[in-house]
């Protein structure tokens, strides 16, 4: 691709952009939130059309008109949010819209056998007749890959494919990518996770502010070179938790938290000014704890006290009323109003408490607070008046976080706060969280990125299969110790103790 220009109203998303993918390679595409990665990939896969620029495939000039045309050219894209039908089987999803004709039973048998071949070729751990809705996120992603392959894709684009995967699943995905790459196929891998680039890519193309910056050979590059090119400045990564005194008041105390589906007898204590990390593998129950605490899911039993006083939190609005903020891990449910502007979204949660006097909303104050957040979190937007739906994924996440930072909560429960957020902005968020803790706010942070938890938490509570299996202070916590507790089967632990 060369000379690519793409604009949206008020935004120059890409200018004079270029990119080349060789046969047999995995090319990583990196850049800050809003740098233009998704836009570039959407041009390549025919979702948007460029204002200017040329595409060449095997030296021949092409122009993907629409997604179907791109697919015919052998270009497939797997988005962060999958395009799968949960009620259909794996085989039906792979061949959706292309089912063989003929009698129903025969048709299903042929579908299953064709899907079976694909699955075997890729060595996937799913069966053709499984219903997609019952699969894990990692397995659903495998179905997406099988689907892309069934179109004889030669170029496979993966947009942040590991955002919802655990370490073992990431390794399995990287294996799969390696198997997919043949001399005449290639993969473009968009990710914010620097350590994965080293593991999976051959070359790394860096873009910044919609422009091409550089392409490096992964084997020869250091990650700090990549990061410096990405953010255009040196990054300091020295923040970590400041000490919290042991004698600080307990703000939130939870005992015997149980839910119907998963949680068994969870006990948690959160002190003032503390960042408490919640660790565990996917499905361990971390998100369930967060949701139960803010009343987003029903609990079967729990005793919750806030500064020693028993409280009952029956829904997230209730929680907010008690000064408990909750940032969901789910992008689609971040609590953003996509059709409203950045400023309204940031101010929304605090209208009554911060931005209202004599019944009038102080619009100027809301805008000033929004501008401050835009600056401190480096939210990439033409102004605070831009509609949130026009922001890139990572920038939407920042707006969601800003909403809670502005609201001035006593307790902040944040689930995967830096998912999809670029390295530079991560540092800003860590700094802000630390400042909040210093001011005496208390934070529960759920994250599947262990290095992030180890760096940020004063204490780490580890869960497995719906129970708390261990607790580690910042001094004693290591990756190995956390993993030990995270993989402990609570039953066997009890057997050990006996
Ligand atoms: N439909 C649209 N209308 C207006 N602006 C848009 C639209 N789509 C993208 N943009 C803008 O184009 C720029 C590039 O966005 P893009 O989604 O490509 O970034 P990205 O590099 O993928 O970011 P992230 O890492 O956050 O996913 C951003 O400033 C974004 O706000």
From TrEMBL:
GO cellular component: plasma membrane
ABC transporter domain span: 1-234, 239-490
Matches recorded under SMART domains: AAA
GO molecular function term, any single one: ATP binding
Protein topology in the membrane: Peripheral membrane protein
PROSITE patterns the record matches: ABC_TRANSPORTER_1, ABC_TRANSPORTER_2
Keywords: ATP-binding, Cell membrane, Membrane, Nucleotide-binding, Repeat, Sugar transport, Translocase, Transport
Cellular compartments annotated: Cell membrane
Pfam families: ABC_tran (PF00005)
InterPro entries in alphabetical order: AAA+_ATPase, ABC_carbohydrate_import_ATPase, ABC_transporter-like_ATP-bd, ABC_transporter-like_CS, P-loop_NTPase
Keyword Nucleus: no
Protein name, per record: D-ribose transporter ATP-binding protein
């Amino acid at each position: 691709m060369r000379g690519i220009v793409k604009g949206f109203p008020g935004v120059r998303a890409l200018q004079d952009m270029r990119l080349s993918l060789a046969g047999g390679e995995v090319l990583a595409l990196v850049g800050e939130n809003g740098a233009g990665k998704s836009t570039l990939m959407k041009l390549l896969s025919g979702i948007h059309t460029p204002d200017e620029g040329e595409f060449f495939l095997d030296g021949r000039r092409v122009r993907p008109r629409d997604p179907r045309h791109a697919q015919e050219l052998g270009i497939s894209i797997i988005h962060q949010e999958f395009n799968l039908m949960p009620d259909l089987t794996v085989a039906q999803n792979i061949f959706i819209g292309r089912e063989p004709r003929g009698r129903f039973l025969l048709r299903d048998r042929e579908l299953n056998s064709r899907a079976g071949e694909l699955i075997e070729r890729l060595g996937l751990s799913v069966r053709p007749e499984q219903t997609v809705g019952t699969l894990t996120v990692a397995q659903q992603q495998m179905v997406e890959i099988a689907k892309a392959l069934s179109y004889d894709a030669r170029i496979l684009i993966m947009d942040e494919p590991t955002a919802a995967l655990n370490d073992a699943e990431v390794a399995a995905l990287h294996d799969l990518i390696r198997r997919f790459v043949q001399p005449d196929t290639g993969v473009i891998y968009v990710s914010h996770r620097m350590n994965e680039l080293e593991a999976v890519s051959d070359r790394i193309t860096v873009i910044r502010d919609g422009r091409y910056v550089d392409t490096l050979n992964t084997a020869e590059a250091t990650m700090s070179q990549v990061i410096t090119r990405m953010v255009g400045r040196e990054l300091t990564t020295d923040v970590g938790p400041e000490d919290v005194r042991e004698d600080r008041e307990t703000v939130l105390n939870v005992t015997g938290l149980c839910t119907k589906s998963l949680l068994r007898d969870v006990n948690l204590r959160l002190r003032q000014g503390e960042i408490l990390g919640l660790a565990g593998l996917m499905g361990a129950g971390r998100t369930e704890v967060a949701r139960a605490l803010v009343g987003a899911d029903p609990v079967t039993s729990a005793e919750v006290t806030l500064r020693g006083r028993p409280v009952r939190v029956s829904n997230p609005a209730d929680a907010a009323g008690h000064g408990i903020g909750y940032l969901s891990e789910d992008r689609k449910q971040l609590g953003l109003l996509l059709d409203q502007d950045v400023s309204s979204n940031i101010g929304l949660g605090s209208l009554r408490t911060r931005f209202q006097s004599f019944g009038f909303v102080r619009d100027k104050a809301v805008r000033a607070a929004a501008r401050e957040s835009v600056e401190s979190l480096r939210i990439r937007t033409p102004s605070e008046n831009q509609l949130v739906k026009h922001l890139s994924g990572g920038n939407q996440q920042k707006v969601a976080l800003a909403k809670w930072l502005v609201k001035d909560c006593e307790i902040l429960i944040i689930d995967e706060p830096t998912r999809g957020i670029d390295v530079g902005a991560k540092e800003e968020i860590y700094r802000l969280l630390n400042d909040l803790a210093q001011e005496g706010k208390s934070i529960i942070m759920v994250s599947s990125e262990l290095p992030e938890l180890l760096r940020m938490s004063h204490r780490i509570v580890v869960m497995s299969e719906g129970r708390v299996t261990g607790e580690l202070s910042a001094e004693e916590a290591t990756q190995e110790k956390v993993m030990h507790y995270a993989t402990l089967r609570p039953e066997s632990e009890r057997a050990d103790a006996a």
